[in-house]
Amino acid sequence: MRGPTSGAGIMGMAEEGDLSITHLPPDFIRLMYAGMECGRAISCFKEVERLLAIRIERDGAEIREWLSVFNAIRLALHFTANVSKLFWPQDKPSAQVKNRCDRLRKLVGLSVDHPLSNRRLRNHFEHFDERLDKWVGDSPRPFAGIEVILEDDLPDVTRRALHRSVPVLYDEIDQSILMLGEKFLLPELLSAVKDVLSHISLSKIFDSTTS
User: Fold this and answer.
1) Whole-model pTM?
2) Is residue 138 part of a domain?
3) Residue 102 Cα to chain centre, angstroms
4) Average pLDDT in the 70-96 region?
């Protein structure tokens, strides 16, 4: 992404008494933030892939980094949701939020129906507690854990049982995350985030403020 992106560089300018950077257009700053969140999301998606490839043999058993995988997945989804919020408002937004989203999409050339415009992912993060209440309220029910990874060689009967007894699942076969019945394909989300970052990087706002 063009334009200043280094926090150390900004601090250096402040120490030298040059605070002209504070006069940047507000949308320039918003797009810098969006670009940084895209970069963080992409790094986390790549970390998921790296961790899934790790297999350690110990005492005749295969050890895998399941906890670290879920930590990376949650971070990737969190950053992805942050990007979505900047460009696509929730239902019935305030006029200020709607205007900001419309303006930023226009600046970078993103469509209203972009894949990241889907609010399902954001809603899960913002209302997860309520949805978990409903899930645990459907009792009595089987329970096998909060988060489980469905390995690609897992028998179908075991998969079906885990779908009923675990609120958050990652499926190695199609690289999807299932959260309380809502399915999200990680490769599709990664592709969407990369597309947003590409649009941000090509925005002419960076040319006009750095020339």
Assistant:
1) 0.83
2) yes
3) 21
4) 93
